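Researcher: Here's my situation. A collaborator sent me these components and asked whether they could plausibly form a single complex. I don't have experimental data yet, so a predicted model of the whole assembly would be a useful starting point for our discussion.
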Amino acid sequence: MSKNLTPRSEDYSKWYNELVIKADLAENSAVRGCMVIKPYGFAIWEKMQAELDKMFKETGHQNAYFPLFIPKSLFEAEEANAEGFAKECAVVTHYRLQNDPDNEGKLRVDPEAKLEEELIVRPTSEAIIWNTYRNWIQSYRDLPILINQWANVVRWEMRTRLFLRTAEFLWQEGHTAHATKEEAYEEAELMNNVYARFAEGFMAIPVIKGLKTESERFAGAEDTFCIEALMQDGKALQAGTSHFLGQNFAKAFDVKFTNKEGKQDYVWATSWGVSTRLMGALIMTHSDDKGLVLPPNLAPIQVVIVPIYRSEEQLEQIDVVAKGLIDELRGSGLSVKYDNRDTQRPGAKFAQYELQGVPVRLAIGPKDLENGTVELARRDTLTKEIIPFDAVVSKIKDLMDEIQTSMFDKALNFRDEHITEVDDFETFKTVLEEKTGFISAHWDGTDETEDRIKELTKATIRCIPIYTEAVPGNCVLTGNPSERRVLFAKAY
Amino acid sequence: MSKNLTPRSEDYSKWYNELVIKADLAENSAVRGCMVIKPYGFAIWEKMQAELDKMFKETGHQNAYFPLFIPKSLFEAEEANAEGFAKECAVVTHYRLQNDPDNEGKLRVDPEAKLEEELIVRPTSEAIIWNTYRNWIQSYRDLPILINQWANVVRWEMRTRLFLRTAEFLWQEGHTAHATKEEAYEEAELMNNVYARFAEGFMAIPVIKGLKTESERFAGAEDTFCIEALMQDGKALQAGTSHFLGQNFAKAFDVKFTNKEGKQDYVWATSWGVSTRLMGALIMTHSDDKGLVLPPNLAPIQVVIVPIYRSEEQLEQIDVVAKGLIDELRGSGLSVKYDNRDTQRPGAKFAQYELQGVPVRLAIGPKDLENGTVELARRDTLTKEIIPFDAVVSKIKDLMDEIQTSMFDKALNFRDEHITEVDDFETFKTVLEEKTGFISAHWDGTDETEDRIKELTKATIRCIPIYTEAVPGNCVLTGNPSERRVLFAKAY
């Protein structure tokens, strides 16, 4: 494989696939549609996990763990949910292998070891969790239950892409139980806001918060909150969803409680999740033709130091200077790598760290030793400057915030430039194809119109942006009355 | 269910099962043999994970993630390993459900959606990982690979018990690749030592390090290091294993590299793991008839404060005092819970925190306010004392270390008192039945003798304690020459 990435302008999809592989984030495995997340990619995911986990705990949630398998009879209990996932389920039917009598040294499924009831590998855990909650909840005193789990799930997708759509993926799924509709609705909205804060504050990805239309909702939900991001190629990406499930699962699994008035009622539910798909959002929001660009908050290595030397003696002198610097930087809580490998030339190292998105690179050579300086390169802007040695640490500390903010601002400008208000369907089609991005247009609120627009343009309603003022108008397709503009886009 | 636990002396196994449920650690699920780990139990597991993860990273390992599924053809490639796990495998055969035409509202497996090749839900990941490593390794420069993953695995055990033996469990599995036999062997030993340090330093569980006999080794390993702990009922529990895999997996998956001399050789391997089984070890090492006893290092709540009051006014006064204390304790890095619920009486709260093993309980009542004191109760010793208010924080800080050490010492004494040197088989049987614990006895080194002893007594060789001097003798069963004593016990 060539060292350089295919430019984004030439083939965005190819650029993405190459970047994921070359930056050592993930690769395809021997199992159809399942990925291997490589150490560098996993280190970024771990940083996301740590921050999200902290935010969940700060909002009162606890972690727990529920089984990987869901018996078929439980899986089918909530019909809308079951129907939504039935077509992409991995099903366990047997529990034993045996030697294949026709094939020395090979194994086959033992036909005697057929399960009485098939087990579904969880595509999402509402069924098994609500079946469990039934035994945990008797009275309003047992509520709310605020639980999250970090888990793997499986959805047998036909067309897969690393991080964006894989048969197995890693995620967290929150599952909460409440005594009142209002409380559950607030929880669903709260967690969507947590996701938005995480995406914007940590991942430097601006998102639009809103509600899904009925046809785009989670199977089994009464309302789905979402955060929608815009990728560099003008396509939208759903970065997180939070569902108000009403009493659907409580009814399917008969989860009742005695309320404060002493009456029996069904419990109210939410669920919410983000997944390793966020890695795809991260890549496609910030990266460039040289590779990954990471916001400092998520970078496994925030600063890399590369010595430039001809002789061993020069390297020893640089080592001394570098080590002092590393101690100081690490002392300030930064993660620093010193790359003094002698098997690679500085140019190759520079290219590697550009590919892997390390926010700040320092180079120290013999001239720097003479002048008391270092060369500092910023990954996001690809700018370089010479800094006096004693200003380096404070400069880098400032830069961490500056880069984080600047990456967000850049993505925000791009996103805002790519929200286009459109009032007629011809313009809708032209903008969608030529300018791309979100189209803010009126919609008459019917499934039919939504489907028809999707058929004609491949654009879907990404969200109903409920946090902006609702100004009525006329549907961009039918001309029928519309309560407010919604956001259309082609999406990942 | 009664509030009190069955005493250990009456029925140890029943005591264990009740404790796991009543202390809210875990419960059985609707899926045969799979458990639900409840928030309190999971919080303890998270503390274990965090510490182990730190220790793995300090020894140079990185986390990654490999697929849940293993195609059958890969699974069977390393024959010893495949044979070891074939009889307890969950097998995915289909990837879709459909509406059941004979059963309105029900689903059935879609017979059209049969996989060409069955997928095994990983019981351990050597096969999928070594199949992946083949593409990562060309030269000695690509070595070592030092990777760990946190994952769920499935082994279809017929008789299951919460934490100790479950069909699905959580674990970490390290998988490393090396250029030389020596380096791989050292890695396997190093990680066993890491496990020992973790068990003793964090879990306060004394362990014996050693090697497994051939018949007790991991399927596919050339040597298995282990740490063995002793439970209160005199049965041993294998708390962690670290395997030197030789070149077995490299040969099965054709993983070769060019060594420094320019020659092709197969790569050397290790794997090592600990699981949620450690929760069982924790419970059965320290707990008592009142419930769980947690070492401070692993306690999700280290200090609980319970106000004792008759009037609202008293509670308000206690609140003020308690809040100052909480700030100070939290400022020292301790996790503190203030339980001022008005739905429970102090006695019920005391019982709950005893059941859940909170190391230190403070009670503050009206008299304490008058006298400037608090009542401090230690969970491990069940002792109480009155402490002047201004001495509380420093007292508790000291107590955290003291309890941790004292719990370890207590378990160590018990363990050491239950290692009995035995030189004839009659005594062997008597000690095993009456005194229980480890029996240190000579063994002639043959599978036959090992099997025979197991048949006659149910005792297995828990480990060959390689870190003590080898003194020759005569086999306790056959009288044949023996190189050294080994440790026998009945085991979980």
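Model: Some features of this prediction you could bring to your collaborator: Chain B touches chain A through 63 residues (CB under 8 Å). The mean pLDDT of chain B is 97.
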